[in-house]
Amino acid sequence: MPRPQSVLAALLLAVPLLLAQALLAQTPRGPVKHPATETRIVFTGDILLSRNVRLQLKKQTPWKGFETLFRGAAWVGGNLEGAVGKPEDCVPRAPSPCFDIADPLLVLLKSAGFNALSVENNHAADLGDTGRNQTSSGLLQRGLLPLDFAGAPHFLQVGDATMAVIAINTVKDAAGVSAAIPSIELAQKLRLARNLANLVVVSVHWGGELLDWPSDGQRRQAEWLIDHGADLILGQHPHVVQPPECVHGKPVFFSLGNHLFDQKYPETKEGLIAECRIAHGRLTCGGWSTHTPPSSFFPELRGRNHDADRALAACTPGLSSGFSVNGIGVRPLPWKAGQPLEGIIVGAWKNGRWQWLSRRQHAVSLEAGPLAGRDQPDLLFSLERHFSPIDKEIGLRPYVYAIGPRGLVARWRGSALAWPLLDARLLPGSNRICALHRGDSFLLLDPQTKATRIAAYEWNGFGFKGVEDPEIERQCRALLMDEVQAGSVAQPVEP
After folding, report:
1. pLDDT tens digit string along 187-220?
2. What is the pTM of this model?
3. Are 102 and 227 in a shared domain?
4. What angle do helix axes 470-486 and 184-196 make, rounded to 10 degrees?
5. Structural domain contains residue 136
6. Beta strand pairing status for 250-253 and 245-247?
7. What string of DSSP letters covers 333-360?
8. Per the structure, how many domains does the chain have?
């Protein structure tokens, strides 16, 4: 892109001065400080607000005795089974039941001390897209964050740390939809979370119902998640507790079991609450046991789960130091009530305060490297989702930014590369990128194709040009091979 256009793009992309000042005035001048020397985060298992639980809610509150555990935590999350709406709105499905949630019941979650609820599970589509939307809007109206996959990673401030949360459901819902582990999209979300956050948490709905031990599939998926950036995994769906383990040095709660549910099998009445502490740059985790009496559907707190504590005692991963570009800390603006779920705002953090904030970006990947040359300041390489008249799709578009004193300065704005794009990575230590393309072309579009091609490009200061070098192509194939395998694609096609 010619430099006059870059200047114009910078003016368009940087947050206007008055708007930036307004945003900064509403934003805490840094991480929230907690008086305690450590920060606690808590996550429960499956929560039902339908069926027999709803009947008992008419008589009493479900979270008596949990006040100290929840209120003393910096962040409390859980998995909400079902969707907001009326019974007649349930979509036809068999043999599973439909969990319709009355909207007024959501206030109980807020009053109990929850901050966020996963809405990625096999019952989230029980009332169709309308139910999904009503669930998210109902939670947002109560100041609760709905943890969905589309808007992930969700960035939050917990104590002095930036935490990223990704929620994913691998069990088919009422529409027959589920997510895959691994996948290219999930790898991108983990990469973005890993680069911008100190702590990456994955809430995952997986496994088989009533199985009290993790399957081989869960173990393989846990290893993949951790290898791609997860620091902590919080599992649900089996409705019984599966013992937590330390996997590749990271705590994995394979299944927390039921928290608030009406199943009657004895094993389904035992639950586990994950409790993790952040202190001195490290994460330590353990658990609390809950028990639901036979005559009730409400849990009771029973005390520490010593088996979980012992299993994770030596599992103390360190937190990431964060993302720095040319000596400037680049951080995501933490979510707070009233903000959109999708897209992120990043800002420069220096000397204990925000220097500037970007516009909201639909970024799926953000990396920094010496695109301009080893003797020049690093540039940011971003993949963002935007509509393009070239392919008439909302697809991935590559952007290049410089870090300016007042914001991000666009050096290259989302023009298409040679073919439709699936993913792209900076080739470490160079001014090149490695792109994973679909096997079709802009002339003959076929978004459903499973074929791919890998290509290398070099930044020349104004844009990207193709590179035909066998060694660079080999390096790109090695860098992107994991993405190729994650996408379960066919054999690559030749450029």
Report:
1. 999 999 999 999 999 999 999 999 999 999 999 9
2. 0.91
3. yes
4. 100
5. yes
6. antiparallel
7. PPP-TTS-SSSB-EEEEETTEEEEEB--
8. 2
